[in-house]
Amino acid sequence: MIKVNFNGNWKLYLSYQTSYTQSISKNQTTVKTKVYIGSVKHWDINYRNVNKNVYITIGGVQKSLLIDSLNLNGNTKYLGEVTHVINHSSDGTCSTSLKISCDMQNITVVSSISGNRLRVGSINYSKSLSFPTIARKSKINLSKYSYNLGERINLNCNYKSDSFNHKWIIKYGNTELKSYKVKNNNYTTMLDYMGSELARYGKNRAYITLSIYLYTYNGSTYIQL
């Protein structure tokens, strides 16, 4: 729980707590923020009809919670929870900011000790946020890019998550020659092409070009980025 003080000379504060979950398939982080208002011990306040908003902004999206009334004597009052959905960049990284603001300049209290009128003040708070990088689609790694007919092609990829499934497809032009599904993400796929399978495509040619495609899935959801 993080505490942020109002800037007035009446000792009130906001406190907040964030939690998050991440979606690999959507490349998003969902942030939940719980907000409380409290008073320091011996700085009691009993104020009806406050009707002020606390604004919580993450990733440029603003949400609000209402402070309807205050009856605090060294304790806290739960104001509620807001949810923000944050999109990560294409490489899975995410850095953003959290801002909390509340203006209660016109909320004043007469001290029972000194008789002076004290004000609550306002809060303008900002904090940088960064979330764990979300694993994105896997990429193909080849030990080499030139093969002889009949030579084994070793296909490797930098798997991003143990929850991902993959499908390899090898094509000559628009013709699919072979596809292979991989569930064990630490497995090196080996596809063996014999000369007889490709001889007809390479007839009277010094070489032919094959295209290799790798599709990444989280369950049945295709990872596009």
Estimated radius of gyration:
30 Å
Strand content: over 45%
| Low-confidence sequence ranges | 185-189
Q: State the separation between the terminal residues, measured CA to CA.
A: 35 Å
Instruction: Provide a count of the helices.
Output: 1
The tally of domains stands at: 2
Shape: rod-shaped
Largest sheet: 4 strands, antiparallel
Question: In the CATH hierarchy, what is the architecture of the largest domain at level 2?
Answer: Sandwich
Class of secondary structure makeup? mainly beta
Order of helices and strands: EEEEEEEEEEEEEEEHEE
Notes on the protein architecture:
By secondary structure, this protein is an all-beta fold. The protein contains 1 helix and 17 strands. Strands 1-2-3-8 form a 4-stranded antiparallel beta sheet, with no helix packed on it. The chain has a 4-stranded antiparallel beta sheet with strand order 6-5-9-10, with no helix packed on it. The protein has a 4-stranded antiparallel beta sheet with strand order 14-13-16-17, with no helix packed on it. The protein starts with a strand and ends with a strand.
